[in-house]
Amino acid sequence: MHQCTITLKSPIPYHAPSSQSHPIFPHNPRLTQSQSHPILAPICTRAHSVFNSTRGLDISAPKHTSNSNSNAINGSVHDLKSKSVGVKDIDVATLGNLCVDIVLNVPKLPPPDVHDRKAYMDRLSASPPDKQYWEAGGNCNMAIAAARLGLHCIAIGHVGNEVYGQFLVDVLHDEGIGMVGMCENTNVDSSSASYETLLCWVLVDSLQRHGFCSRADFSKDPAFSWMSKLSEQVKTAIKQSKILFCNGYGFDELPPGVIVSAVEYAVEVGTALFFDPGPRGKSLSAGTTEEQGALSQLLRMSDVLLLTSDEAESLTGIENPISAGQELLKQGVHTKWVIVKMGPRGSILITRSSISCAPAFKVNVIDTVGCGDSFVAAIAYGFIHNMPAVNTLAIANAVGGATAMGCGAGRNVATLEKVIELMKASNLNEDDEFFDELLNENLDVQAIKSLSKLVIKGSENQPNCVSLQKVVSELLPKLKLTHLQKKVPC
């Protein structure tokens, strides 16, 4: 079940809204230096990548047809530098956490002892598995899900110049996603293990339980500890992006100082920061001084924080997820949204003046790997397009749910067709008692909105009730427009 893959044979072209205000996609005043997209040329041919024998992957970009009036969707950083200052042509850039997942069925999960786990992983690594078991992992999940929603995405990170690195580059380009390499240190031996693409062994036992192993688990230092600063190429990519997405797993690869540099530069150039600490948030809060400082910086300076209820509690000590979100808002400097992911119960979006709740969609869950990453991609979609909070949660729940209906992450995250199908079905997993219990506490907010399928007579006049039918009727034209644009032949 976890080994099925869906390989896209052609890249997904990106079609941006026109420079005029679009009736379906209004401009977002949340975005500093907000600029509309230029019309970008669709990608018609397979991507290529550029490798350097001493520095690994620097830049990779899909090939595109020459057109004096258009730009490449994923042009090189050289192309980005030629654009006028302040124009943000990229919707989402992901930072680090690029890895290849090796998904295997095993009779038993790895043992808990660190030394035994290391020996277990070494035995697996001794005989590289067939390519059918490889999948793009880490931040590739978020980037692919975002690209399938029609967002223009790039991945900033490091991959080695071996077969695994080439595999990742090919997968990203087949999805229409550009790549900016992070490599400034020319003294690093490109043949050393510390330079290789990070592999994550995703192990599934007979009970469908998951175990994970990677070389980052067995070192106190990040996998790419030789990195010390951001290259000018990376800075340009951040500057040209509306959103920079970071997650806690980025600390497994990148030194805290490099992550802080990216955060500070994003703030400087008006790029919105999205941060999902994930399970690493708890360990980072008790980690080294540098890790604690970097975590604090991310929590304070991010525009949007995304956490599960358990993660929110571990960072604040507050059990109620709404109260925990409000505490994170108080501690934040730039924080506009705190979003709490509640799994099958749905999600909550908290601002300084409002709370929005949306139950999850009912789906036949096959695999939850990649659901959180897909959810984040849709939150970015709503943020960029200035959607109402409830609408943003609804599409995020749909994208996360559609991913859960498939097998694994990477190229198997939600397709636009599945998202549209799920929203049309409009089958919510409503749990009014659960949300009422959360909201009945003394919460100092001006507005509370909740998504509901059942429309009781007169409820549409109540400010705290938003009809699912109304939300779906507003979202479907946007999604269908994107779907139609993806089908336009080159």
From TrEMBL:
It comes from the Eukaryota. GO terms for molecular function: nucleoside kinase activity. The keyword Metal-binding does not apply. Signal peptide: none annotated. Residues 1-26 are annotated as: Disordered. Residues 130-408 form the Carbohydrate kinase PfkB domain. Keywords: Kinase, Transferase. Gene3D superfamilies: 3.40.1190.20. GO terms for cellular component: chloroplast. One of its GO terms (biological process) is inosine salvage. The keyword Glycosyltransferase does not apply. It holds the Pfam family PfkB. This is PREDICTED: ribokinase. The lineage of its organism: Eukaryota, Viridiplantae, Streptophyta, Embryophyta, Tracheophyta.
